[in-house]
Amino acid sequence: MKLAGLTAISFIAMLAGASAQEPPVLKGEAAFGDWKADKPGVRRLIAADDLQRASPSEASSNSADRARMPAGARPDLPRGFTAEIIASGLRSPRVVRTAPNGDLFVADSRAGRLLVYRLGEDGKPTGDGVFAEGLSQPYGIAFHPADKPQWVYVASPDRVVRYPYKEGDMQAKGEAETVVSDIPSGGHWTRDIAFSADGKTLYVSVGSQSNVGQDMGKAPEGGIEAWAGSQPLGYAWGEEEGRANVLAFDADGKNRRVVATGLRNCSGMAVQPATQALWCVVNERDQLGDNVPFEYATTVKEGAFYGWPWYYIGANEDPRHAGARPDLAGKVTAPDVLMQAHSAPLNIAFYQGDQFPAAYKGDAFVTLHGSWNRGARTGYKVVRLRFEDGKPTGEYEDFMTGFVLSDAEVWGRPVGVAVARDGSLIVTEDGSGTIWRVSYDQKRS
After folding, report:
1. Alpha-carbon distance 382 to 369, whole Å?
2. DSSP letter string over 91-117?
3. Among 354, 355, 315, which residue's Cα sits nearest to residue 332?
4. Residue 62 is part of a domain; what is its CATH number?
5. N or C: which end of the chain has fewer CB within 10 A?
6. Are 382 and 365 in contact, with CB atoms under 8 Å apart?
7. Inside any domain, residue 221
8. Please, which residues have CB within 8 angstroms of residue 125's CB and are 6 or more apart in sequence?
9. 40 to each of 78, 166, 231, 287, 443, how far by Cα in Å?
10. Domain total for the chain?
11. What confidence tens digit (pLDDT) does each residue in 347-384 have?
């Protein structure tokens, strides 16, 4: 007997395995744990109603010491999954993206290099190269056109450049061409880029200069009312003008426009295959207490304002800007998926491969770089965002943990995430400077 291509026995086993891996969902304060509660399969569902009172006086400073990766260390993963190192000894591996031919492009940001790794059929590296060097803090990477790219785009804090590209190139064959040159630099420097599904629009994320707009200065010339009437909704001024936004351009860098505002630091972007919607993961503000405000992942809606610096997670007013923008209170777009405060989400990738169990298809993976502004350490892991019929359930689940050694020390800080051509998951971390390949084998489950 067969059920949709599965034998009845394997179908029953699949259901049993799925139910065995579905622990209760942690909600409310129960979801506000620290690294000691993290392990693969732990699920959390955080709602806007779970927000606690902002307490600036109770803000913590708790940066982790980076420890040497223990010999033989491996991240913890769900049953059936294995992680193997495909590169080590890197200075600062950040964003990783998969080229259409399967090559992995990695931004080694502090080294100013764009690296390339080629994997064999067994998933092990068969070659590597320096595609480009001499860059200023490269981060976001994109290929255009998507199917047979002629260009590799790279984002730095103040510009986006592109290199001529032909499938299989391990080194740039031409000089970089500046596509976008007038991006505000300094402050949050991680500029991610992504192309719309039709390839016509280049999205660029620009983080804020400061934590909560303290560099904006006095009201803009002519007053706030005049400013609000002539700028996009929630647009900031002074040192923050043009920041905390997602921008859009034509593929050649022309026709600049603002897509959305009030996104304090959208460090990672991806287009969801099922809906073609642009998603970003956002580092929210610090110094309002251990559990305030939540980090988030969200669709980026045209013309939307997400609150920074005056509001957070909807119309919750930041006490440091009390009474400053009452005109915006009812105009804040609430994000889609809330995550534990100060986890520092940096990148997002939607899973469309066939190697992982079918339940993973359509879900998203998010890297959490880890907290400094929280008394009880959190983050330092990769989580899975759950989706049903293309819509987020709001739940997220620990997937890749084990990078924290103690309350004081960590050896790994996940940054980049991408799906390899064979359906495995690629994760970079800049604590120890490694790149990992996560694969699945049903025989190990």
Report:
1. 9
2. S-EEEEEE-TTSPEEEEETTTTEEEEE
3. 315
4. 2.120.10.30
5. N
6. yes
7. yes
8. 86, 87, 117, 118, 119
9. 5, 39, 45, 29, 18
10. 1
11. 999 999 999 999 999 999 999 999 888 888 999 999 99
The answer to the question of residue 158 being in a domain is yes
pTM of the model: 0.94
For 257-285, write each residue's pLDDT tens digit. 999 999 999 999 999 999 999 999 999 99
Give the DSSP letter string of 161-201.
EEEE--TT-SS-SS--EEEE-----SSS----EEE-TTS-E
Does 137 reside within a domain? yes
Q: What's the rounded Cα separation, in Å, for the pair 92 and 120?
A: 24
In a domain? residue 25: no
Rounded CA separation 265/283 (Å): 5
What is d(CA 368, CA 281) in angstroms, rounded to the nearest whole number? 10
Exposed / middle / buried, residue 358 (Cβ in 10 Å: 0-12, 13-18, 19+): exposed
Q: How far apart (Å, rounded) are the C-alpha atoms in residues 354 and 433? A: 28
Instruction: Please name every residue paired with 25 in a beta bridge, in sequence order, or none if there are none.
Output: 43
Query: Within its chain, how far is the Cα of 237 from the centroid?
Result: 26
Q: Give the C-alpha distances (Å, rounded to integers) separating 399 from 18, 342, 412.
A: 15, 18, 15
